[in-house]
Amino acid sequence: MKYFVTKDNQSISQFALGCMTLPLDNREELSDIIRLSFEEGINYFDTADLYQYGKNEAVIGSFLYDYGQFFDYIIGTKVGNEFDSALREKIRWNPNGEYIKQAVNQSKLRLSRDVIDLLMLHGGTIHDNMDDTISAFESLKNDGHIKSYGISTTRKNVIDYYKENSNLSVLMTPLNIIDNRGEEYLDDNYTFLARGPLMQGLLTEEYDDALKTKFKHGYMGYSVEELREIIIMIREYGYPLEEIAYKYLIDKNVVIVQGVSSVAQLKKNLRHYYNAESIPDEVVDEIRSKIKTKRYKNNRQMENIKKVQPDNKRKAFRIGKKNSR
To answer: What is the CATH number of the domain that holds 39?
Structure first.
């Protein structure tokens, strides 16, 4: 298993476990998934406070706490969606700094952690008070409540602002060989976490079902027929779709955040991940050259930004950030 070291000196396994689809109500299956993950060298577990309205954090936190006696691990969670856990409903998007600090305390309790390894903003818009959010992250980090922070979003203008004005450690966004819009966000200044590596099942041998159910109206300007043609083209190279998908991400030097719902699925995905290493680089390069390069069309411009800190304070923060590297 390959590992990446973040700018905050945390080692993250290249194959990471996305926790949103884990079988929370099947304790035996869940325990087996987590144990197998540790045995295979997976050390990063990705969750969010909004997943099952806090239940995901609580259940995963409990299991990881038990296994943490024998294995080292990193847990990442997300914040910014205010919700009612009793009513099981989202209330509103809330990136306010004070709310984030309160939500982190609740996440720490659910996760059974004194410190959260990685905290990500679960979205973000150009109309947020981003300086206020960044200030909250920095305060939480300086006070020892979190070790590092990042953002999970697809909006270029938001990503650009955080790159320029914060010490963001990771960026999470969708990336795979077909939905390659995230390629323009690859950057050596942070660790890239790729979600959706198998594109909702399209890059698996169950692609026909995915085309009929999840992509029946097309996607990203592709018709369903065009998506099918891409899949057929990839399959003509003689490798499993999953292995081509993983090899593409391996070559991009990103963390692959893969969700599973069973031990069998995790075993299968890991087998494809390990086998992918043997695929020649030129095979994936040739396949990629036959697929259009896509870009996110919306949320690209930096405009109408709300500012909490005066310009001189923001500039001082930027200088301090650059000198600290």
So the answer is: 3.20.20.100
| Predicted pLDDT of residue 305 | 58
Q: 266 vs 17, 32, 89, 156, CA distance in Å?
A: 9, 10, 30, 32
- DSSP SS3 for 88: coil
Q: Give the span between the Cα atoms of 31 and 34, in whole angstroms.
A: 5
Count of domains forming the chain:
1
Instruction: Give the pLDDT band (50/70/90) at residue 302.
Output: confident
Catalytic site residue from 51, 161, 162, 185: 51
- 274 is known as an active-site residue: no
Q: How far apart are CA 196 and CA 252, in angstroms?
A: 15
CA dihedral 64→78→215→156, nearest 10 degrees, is: -140
Domain that holds residue 248: 3-323
**What's the pLDDT band for 87 if we cut at 50, 70, 90?**
confident
Q: What's this model's pTM, rounded to 2 decimal places?
A: 0.91
